[in-house]
Amino acid sequence: MHLRALIVLLLVMNVGVALWWALRPAPAAEPAPAVPGDVPTLVLVAEADRELLQAVALDAANAAAQPDEARADSGDRATVAPEDLRCFSFGPWEGADEAGQAQAGLRVEAVRIRAREAITGATGWQVRLPPLADRAAAEAMVARLVAAGFNDHFILGQGDQANAVALGRFGAEASARRHQAALHEAGFDAALVEPVGATGTETWLDLAVGPDFDPDQARVDSGAARAEPLDCAALQ
Question: Which one of 22, 132, 136, 170 has the lowest number of neighbouring Cβ atoms within 10 Å?
Answer without folding.
Answer: 22
